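S.,

As promised, the heme C run. Input:
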Amino acid sequence: MKARKMRKIINLLSIFFLAISIFNLSLYAQKNSCVECHQELEDELLAPVEAFKIDIHQQFGLSCTDCHGGNPAEEDIDLAKDKTFKGTPQRFRIPEFCASCHSDSRYMRRFNPSIRVDQLDIYWTSKHGQLLKKGDTKVALCTDCHAAHGIQAATHPKSWTFPWNIPQTCSRCHSDTNYMKDYRIPTKQWVDYKNSVHAHALF
Ligand code: HEC
Ligand code: HEC
Ligand code: HEC
Ligand code: HEC
Ligand code: HEC
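Predicted complex:
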């Protein structure tokens, strides 16, 4: 009697685990033609797929389509890039491109109830934002400080915006005398200045 009951339980359990693994497999096999095709391409068409493996957006279940649009269920390039496909945003549009989610508190709270949604507002008050409004696209945009693919949480030690990486992130422009030659701000003292700067509000 007892042995029979045990067998029944074991059978039920194995069906349960089988069901779970089939479910996992189907998740795994879910089509993402963007990744599948770009994986086979080269250089700047491959790089986003490689970088995206560690991206925070990928960790929260988002993918190429959430930023670029398109239909990831279609293998054919013309069908995948349907009318929802946005492609690569023009440089001066990037702040609004990122803020389409990051300024939308209802959307962002579904993922993280305590995340801030004021980055775009703060950006427009910064020198970078003010100059961008005047048409200067050499200033820092969201992607210059965070990357476009391979973005990590601000608290991640490898993130471009983690305190000890910030000097390097800013120096790419600010210590580049040639890049900054049209501006009247120093490129030499930048390295000393850097440590005091670590919040959006200060930019
Ligand atoms: C968080 C938003 C976001 C996600 C998610 C995202 N991208 Fe992008 N992508 C951008 C932005 C912004 C640019 C343009 C700026 C840049 O490349 O510096 C871009 C540019 C590109 C480019 C043009 C690169 C070039 O140098 O010409 C390709 C190709 C691309 N993305 C493919 C992908 C693929 C494939 C995925 C999924 C693995 C993906 N992207 C996911 C935001 C995103
Ligand atoms: C069958 C292959 C294939 C598929 C599927 C595919 N791509 Fe591409 N993609 C390419 C090729 C080739 C290019 C470069 C030529 C061009 O721009 O059409 C490209 C260019 C891009 C660019 C940069 C140029 C632009 O139009 O802004 C982005 C961004 C991009 N793809 C995103 C995506 C996304 C998102 C998906 C999924 C919805 C996707 N791709 C699906 C092959 C593919
Ligand atoms: C489709 C909506 C969407 C778009 C577009 C988008 N993001 Fe995100 N982003 C998210 C979500 C959701 C998270 C996860 C929330 C979290 O980190 O708690 C996130 C997280 C982040 C984080 C990490 C925040 C943290 O926890 O420290 C950064 C940085 C970031 N995004 C920057 C960008 C940049 C830069 C762009 C534009 C290139 C962009 N995002 C575009 C939805 C989006
Ligand atoms: C893509 C290039 C680029 C990156 C990356 C960049 N900046 Fe800038 N930044 C500029 C340009 C261009 C200006 C305009 C110079 C001016 O003020 O005339 C500027 C101006 C500034 C100013 C105003 C300076 C003043 O006195 O007018 C501050 C402050 C600043 N940046 C801080 C930072 C910080 C902090 C970082 C890193 C977190 C950073 N920037 C990253 C290009 C960049
Ligand atoms: C000049 C560099 C710079 C620019 C431009 C920039 N950020 Fe940031 N961002 C940072 C730094 C540094 C941090 C981490 C410290 C902090 O939170 O102030 C950060 C933090 C974040 C976070 C984490 C949550 C938070 O607020 O602490 C998000 C999300 C984010 N940025 C999104 C954006 C978006 C979207 C844009 C464009 C509208 C943008 N950032 C422009 C440097 C930048």
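The first helix runs from residue 2 to 29. Residues 33-34, 37-38, 41, 45, 64-65, 68, 70-72, 75, 77, 80, 87-88 surround heme C (ligand 2) (CB under 6 Å).

- D.
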